[in-house]
Predict the 3D structure of the following.
Amino acid sequence: MSASTEIPRLQLTPAMQRLPIVGIVIGVAATALGFATDIQRAALDLMICGFYAVSVGVLAMFFLSTQRLSSAKWSASIRRIPEALTRVVPAGILLLAIVAVAFHNIWPWMDPAHANPEQWANIKDGFKLENGVIAHAGREVYLAPAFVYARMIICAVLWLAFTFWFRKTSANADASKQAGRAAHSKLNKIGGAFAVLFAFSFTAVAFDFIVSLTPDWFTTMYAVFVFAGSFALSIATIALTLVLLIKHGKLGPNARTQFHEPLHTLGTFLLAFSTFWAYIWTCQYLLIWYGNIPEEVKFYLPRSNSTWLWIFLANVFINWIIPFFTLLPRTSKRSLKIMQAMCTLVICGHWLDMWLLVMPSKERFHDHLPLGPVEIGMAAGVIGLVALIIMRGLAKLPLVPTHDPVIEHRRQIAAHGH
């Protein structure tokens, strides 16, 4: 095997970047149209795009953490793909920051009437009744604007720091075999630390940006639900990137054989977490439906009325039923065509899932679907932005780590025929 085959590099061409750039241009035009016609709706769409991009990058970092903590060997050769995905985090944070600073009136807790902890001082047990709904003083304190923004900033800084630290350590490992061994241990520590912080930070961000759109609604399963969908999205993006690199010969002439194990495992991951997403979706829905508590059912009432019901059900069909039955056979997970189709479906499906989480939170949208050229254009824009960042990230380093101890060990075994 030649050195060029062992250490392939991605050479970016204008043709490769053309489609993502077209998507970005469409997204910018759609964003301008949205803010010119309906500011609140466009701000919500922009928040969806920001959260979507952040989810791709942060969950890619979480994927890397799980691989380090489990001492997984199968993913060593594709590590550069999730590393490239983590480069999307700054762009996603920038979009969310624009919404948080310039269009913060989309959140009810920005209303001074919702941020007055003193009004709770003499309320027995911290509860009071507002418009027939029980409210709790803890929410008023938790959703105080200064506290919310502090959490947002802390989470953003943590994510930026850890993703940069991981990528820099991984890049330094390519210098020599000794550097590779030293970095291997350091990457394990970074991954372990991030996994702990991720659990708290992602929960906080999911509640602060999305749940707080409906501050008097509450569920303990929400963060797990958003995590399951976001992880499926990130896995689909990693798998689709691998498929495209193999199809276009960027990983060498024998890539189909060399990367069949990672591709199959990613297909299994996608099947598993699509099912996990559906499991949490079902559990949350059934528990709220059975309990029939006014404070809880208000989330599902607008999403299951005659206007939204078809898209509410289509969400489950797209994000679970089709991927589940398609990816069950072993051969499907090793087929480039099938994996490309299913990954694309899940990537688009989880944009729809996030849109469904956000838009019905506003009462003005309960009787009609705010889904049109603006939403489709902005979705195309964020997907194009993510694709362009990933491609440019992959071009910065060898597509396969040069001196990773796991890869070196596998090469020695292959060379000696054992």
Remarks:
- The chain has 17 helices and two strands.
- The CA atoms of residues 285 and 360 lie 16 Å apart.
- Residues 1-5, 115-134 have pLDDT under 50 and may be disordered.
